Amino acid sequence: MTIRVLLADDHAVMRDGLQALLKMAPDIAVIGSVGNGREAVRLAAGLRPDVVIMDVTMAELNGIEATGLLRARHPEIRVVMLSMHSSSEHVYRAFNAGAVGYLLKESAGDEIVAAVRAAHSGRQYISGELQTMERRSAPRTGGTGPLASLSTRERQVLQLVVEGRASAEIAALIHLSPKSVDTYRSRLMKKLGIADVTGLVKFAIQHGLTPAG
After folding, report:
1. Which pTM was predicted?
2. Which of 27, 121, 150, 162 could anchor a disulfide with 154, C-beta 3.0 to 4.6 Å?
3. Taking 60 as the threshold, does the pLDDT of residue 144 lie above it?
């Protein structure tokens, strides 16, 4: 049986490298490649891959939020997160969103094939460098850290705001009215105790919601 894989990473060089590595495995076929989480969710709905390799930090819709949407709509699709972040917060959020694997980019070349095969068979996979880190494998309510206080919509609005998008554009992307977008923005700033967009940008980059540049 061939394992059908969709790649989602905002760097074309990274996607090309992963595709080259996966092509060497006789039981794996890359069926698509996209540069952001929103496109990953859209394309996965049509292609129905077995496994999605999902970068955590992508513009427009980050990989963790995309994973939550994808798993809610297509629970049969397995997701392996790919990240430069090794903090327990990122690992927890990834598994809590429904991912079954977490790979560090620096070790992905050595582990990508094993991670895809493990995910396809329903087993969890985590980078060897993170094996000693405590991780929570099952989705839970609650969570820790400031992001836990925000709703899914608030996190989506936060990412798009810090990427410089106007309320009307955000409203069109996530199917809300501009007034609702403004309400979400005010609410999330109050929850986070942040008074301006500069502060939001720093927060979003620190927590891997959006690329640093």
Report:
1. 0.74
2. 150
3. no
